[in-house]
Amino acid sequence: MFTLRDSPREVRLTLLAALCWMRQTEITDSVKAKPTTLAPWVST
User: Fold this and answer.
1) What does pTM read for this prediction?
2) 4-to-8, 10, 12, 14, 16 alpha-carbon distances in Å
3) Which superkingdom does the taxonomy of this entry point to (predicted)?
4) What angle do CA 11, 8, 15 make, to 5 degrees?
5) Which pLDDT score, from 0 to 100, does residue 16 have?
6) Fewer CB within 10 Å, N- or C-terminus of the chain?
7) Angstrom distance (rounded) from CA 40 to CA 26
8) Nearest CA to 4 among 41, 42, 27, 13?
9) Quick one: CA dihedral 16, 22, 24, 30, positive or negative?
10) Cα dist. 31→3, 7, 8, 19, 37 in Å?
11) Could you give the count of Cα atoms lying within 13 Å of 7 in the half-sphere of its Cβ?
12) Read out DSSP for 5-42?
């Protein structure tokens, strides 16, 4: 069975960086979406 721990360090760090970037993008998009749902007249 393959586990992430079996991967080389470079691969693990690259995947971790990609995960962090995706989460940051999701959080940023979520924060930007909140004001428009609370106050539809606010334009982004």
Assistant:
1) 0.59
2) 9, 11, 7, 12, 11
3) Bacteria
4) 20
5) 93
6) N
7) 21
8) 13
9) negative
10) 34, 34, 35, 18, 11
11) 11
12) GGS-HHHHHHHHHHHHHHHHHHHHHHHHHHHHHH-TT-
For the chain, give the number of residues: 44
Structure tokens at 21: 């970037």
Q: Which amino acid is at 9?
A: R
The tokens describing 6, both together, are: 């079996």
Q: In the numeric block, which tokens belong to residue 30?
A: 């979520």
When pLDDT is averaged across residues 26-38 and rounded to a whole number, the result is: 74
